[in-house]
Specification:
Helices cover about 30% and strands about 35% of the residues. It is of the alpha+beta class and about 140 residues long. The chain has 5 helices and 7 strands; from the N terminus they run H-E-E-E-E-H-E-E-H-H-H-E.
């Protein structure tokens, strides 16, 4: 899905999706309950790259159903809402996080803050996911 940057909202959404460091990935568990979890992400063209630790609930949820949403926090006043809906699935042929220079650069400070190196992060968060949006909502 290409974001229409000719509109004010599209331009703002594209900017935020390129610069924000935390998004909420929402998956659906076995009983149909939405399960949001904060994730680090990288906009990679028209998809988003997310890394996960193995054996997590989000991976089990996505194995059952790839339907997912990715959204950003608002401005604290109910505005600047960005919500993407689509599908997320494992991307086993994707390089590990430490071999994706844009990902390492984006999260260099975050890695340092949590006491990890790109290599240790890649070992701990070894499952790559691709989120492919089909719809953009917000205001």
């Amino acid at each position: 899905m290409k974001i229409d940057t000719a509109t004010g909202f599209g331009k703002r959404a594209a900017r935020r999706l390129g610069s924000e460091t935390i998004a909420w990935l929402v998956t659906v568990d076995a009983d149909g309950t939405p399960r949001p979890i904060p994730v680090w992400f990288l906009r990679d063209g028209e998809t988003f790259l997310i890394y996960s630790q193995p054996s997590t609930a989000k991976l089990r949820n996505l194995a059952r159903s790839p339907k997912a949403a990715l959204h950003l926090d608002g401005d604290g006043q109910g505005g600047d809402i960005v919500i993407l809906t689509g599908e997320a699935q494992a991307a086993p042929h994707t390089p590990t996080a430490d071999h994706v220079p844009a990902y390492v650069e984006k999260y260099r400070a975050g890695l340092k803050r949590i006491g990890m190196t790109p290599a240790s992060f890649a070992r701990a968060y070894s499952v790559a996911l691709r989120f492919t949006p089909t719809r953009l909502d917000g205001h």
